[in-house]
C-alpha cells in the first residue's frame, strides 16, 4: 500500500489527493499545509465577495474528509524551522509538491519600494485574513489608487477598493479590513494596462462585474480603444467580448457616482514618484501597438497622482530548499509531473499546480494538471512501493519538533469563526492571526 504526501492543500493539492484515491484503491494520502487551515488560495486568494467561487471549499472538503486522506496543518516543509525535503522524502513512498506560487512578480522600476506601493498579493492577503499579512495602513490618507496590470487579480483588488460596507458585511472578511475599507476616503482607482484592451488578461465575467458596482462609475477612454488596431471580429471569443464591454462603457454618458474606476491602456509604468516620503504618483510611458500584439514606447510620459499603488503583475513561484528550481519560469522543472534533477527524472518526487506550470489558469485548470501528475506517479508505483517507510509519519514529525494540526483542529477554527461572526452580528468572520488560529485549533 502506497503512502503519499501532498504538500499544499489548495486546489492543486486537493485535486492531486482526489486523483490518487480515485485511481488507486489502496493509497493513503497525507495532505500537509504550513497553515492550520486548508484550501490555499480558495481561502486566502479568492476575494471575499466571490462567494460562489469560495463555495468550492465544499468539494475540496469532501476530498480532505475521505477515509484514506488525512489533513495535517501547521507543517512547514523546507526553509527555516521547516521539515527538510530530504527528511520528508524518507517518510513517504512519494511526495507531490503543490505549493503554488507564493510571491509576486516585480516591476523592476525605481520607486517600487516606496511606502504606499504594495504588491496586490500583500493587499489580497490582508483582506483575506492571511495570518502572515500585516495591516500596512493601505488606505490611510488615500484618495486615488493606481492598480498596475489588467489581469483578474487587478480586477479583484480594484473591486475590493470600491466596495462599500453594505456589500462586504455579509462576507467572511475580517472585521479590521471591513472597518478600514468602510471608512476609506478613496474616490478614484486607475486600473492600467501596458498593452491594449484586446490583450487584457481579465475574463469578461470579472470585467462586467466592475460595471455593476453600486455607487461606482467605470470610464474607458475612447482614444485607448481607437488605438487598438485589432479587428474585434477577428479576435478570439474572450478578448472580443472584453472589447465589446469596454466599447459599451466608453459610449455611456457620465454619471454622478461618488467613486470612479478608470480603465487605462497603452501605459507602461517607468517610475514611482515620491511625495513627502511616500508614493505620490506613477510615471507611465505611453505605448503604441506593434503589429504582433506587443507595444513599443513612444517617448511620451504621463504622471498619474496616487497615494496607493497596487502592483498586480502576476504571481511567482519561490524555490524550496532541497528541490531544483528554474528561476526564469519560477517553477520546479518536471517531466509530466515527475521532478527533474539536473535534467534526470527523480522518481518519488512530483509537482502539480502553479509550481509545475506557472501561475496561470482558473481553479479548474488544476484538475487535469493533477491527474497528469498522479498518472505519472502511479506508473512509478511498483518501484516506489518497495521502499520501507514508517507506518505513521506523524510520530516522525513530532520527533522533529512539529505538532501537526489535525482535521479536528481545523473544524475547531471553523467553529471559532462562526462564533466570532455571531458575536459581531455577522455570519462567519475569519480569524486573522496565528495566535487566534492556533488557540482555536487546540480547543478540545
Ligand atoms: P495575469 O493574468 O498574468 O495578469 C498580469 C497582468 O500584469 C497582465 O495585464 C500583464 O500584462 C501585467 N504585467 C506583467 N508585467 C508587467 C509589467 N512589468 N508592467 C506592467 N504590467 C505588467 O496575472 P493575475 O492577474 O495575477 O492572475 C493570475 C491567475 O489567477 C490568472 O490565471 C487569473 O485568471 C487567475 N485568477 C482568476 C480569478 C477569477 O477567476 N475570478 C481571480 C484572480 C486570479 P501583459 O499581458 O502585457 O504581460
TrEMBL record:
Family membership noted in the UniProt record: Belongs to the ferredoxin--NADP reductase type 1 family.
EC number: 1.18.1.2
FAD/NAD(P)-binding domain boundaries: 3-166
InterPro entries linked to this entry: FAD/NAD-bd_sf, FAD/NAD-binding_dom, Ferredox_Rdtase, Ferredox_Rdtase_adrenod
Keyword Metal-binding: no
Lineage: Bacteria, Bacillati, Actinomycetota, Actinomycetes, Kitasatosporales
Record's protein name: ferredoxin--NADP(+) reductase
Pfam families, per database record: Pyr_redox_2 (PF07992)
Amino acid at each position: 500500500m502506497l503512502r503519499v504526501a501532498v504538500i499544499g492543500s489548495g486546489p492543486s493539492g486537493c485535486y492531486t489527493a482526489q486523483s490518487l484515491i480515485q485511481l488507486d484503491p489502496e493509497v493513503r494520502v497525507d495532505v500537509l499545509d504550513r497553515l492550520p487551515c486548508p484550501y490555499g488560495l480558495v481561502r486566502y486568494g479568492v476575494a471575499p465577495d466571490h462567494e460562489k467561487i469560495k463555495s468550492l471549499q465544499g468539494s475540496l472538503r469532501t476530498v480532505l474528509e475521505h477515509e484514506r486522506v488525512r489533513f495535517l496543518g501547521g507543517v512547514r516543509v523546507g526553509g527555516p524551522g521547516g521539515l527538510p525535503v530530504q527528511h520528508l522524502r524518507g517518510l513517504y513512498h512519494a511526495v507531490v509538491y503543490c505549493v503554488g506560487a507564493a510571491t509576486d512578480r516585480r516591476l523592476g522600476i525605481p520607486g517600487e519600494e516606496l511606502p504606499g506601493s504594495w504588491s496586490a498579493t500583500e493587499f489580497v492577503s490582508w483582506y483575506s485574513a492571511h495570518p502572515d499579512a500585516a495591516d500596512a495602513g493601505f488606505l490611510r490618507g488615500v484618495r486615488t489608487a493606481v492598480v498596475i496590470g489588467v489581469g483578474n487579480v487587478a480586477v479583484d483588488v480594484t473591486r475590493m477598493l470600491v466596495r462599500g460596507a453594505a456589500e462586504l458585511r455579509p462576507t467572511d472578511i475580517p472585521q479590521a479590513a471591513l472597518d478600514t475599507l468602510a471608512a476609506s476616503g478613496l474616490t478614484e482607482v486607475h486600473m492600467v494596462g501596458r498593452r491594449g484592451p484586446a490583450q487584457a488578461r481579465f475574463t469578461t465575467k470579472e470585467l462586467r462585474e466592475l460595471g455593476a458596482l453600486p455607487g461606482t462609475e467605470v470610464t474607458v477612454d475612447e482614444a485607448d480603444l481607437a488605438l487598438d488596431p485589432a479587428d474585434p471580429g477577428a479576435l478570439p471569443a474572450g478578448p472580443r467580448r472584453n472589447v465589446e464591454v469596454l466599447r459599451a462603457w466608453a459610449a455611456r454618458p457620465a454619471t454622478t457616482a461618488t467613486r470612479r474606476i478608470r480603465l487605462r491602456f497603452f501605459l507602461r509604468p517607468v517610475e514611482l514618484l515620491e511625495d513627502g516620503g511616500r508614493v505620490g504618483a506613477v510615471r507611465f510611458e505611453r505605448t503604441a501597438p506593434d503589429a504582433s500584439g506587443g507595444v513599443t514606447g513612444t517617448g511620451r510620459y504621463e504622471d498619474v497622482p496616487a497615494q496607493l499603488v497596487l502592483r498586480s503583475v502576476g504571481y511567482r513561484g519561490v524555490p524550496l530548499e532541497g528541490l531544483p528550481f528554474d528561476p526564469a519560469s519560477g517553477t520546479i522543472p518536471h517531466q509530466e509531473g515527475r521532478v527533474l534533477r539536473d535534467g534526470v527524472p527523480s522518481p518519488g518526487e512530483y509537482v502539480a499546480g502553479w509550481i509545475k506550470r506557472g501561475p496561470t489558469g482558473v481553479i479548474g485548470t488544476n484538475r487535469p494538471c493533477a491527474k497528469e501528475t498522479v498518472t505519472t506517479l502511479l506508473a512509478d508505483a511498483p518501484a516506489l512501493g518497495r521502499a520501507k517507510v514508517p507506518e505513521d509519519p506523524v510520530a516522525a514529525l513530532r520527533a522533529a519538533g512539529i505538532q501537526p494540526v489535525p482535521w479536528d483542529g481545523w473544524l475547531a477554527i471553523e467553529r471559532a469563526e462562526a462564533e466570532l461572526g455571531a458575536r459581531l452580528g455577522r455570519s462567519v468572520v475569519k480569524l486573522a492571526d496565528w495566535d487566534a488560529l492556533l488557540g482555536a485549533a487546540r480547543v478540545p
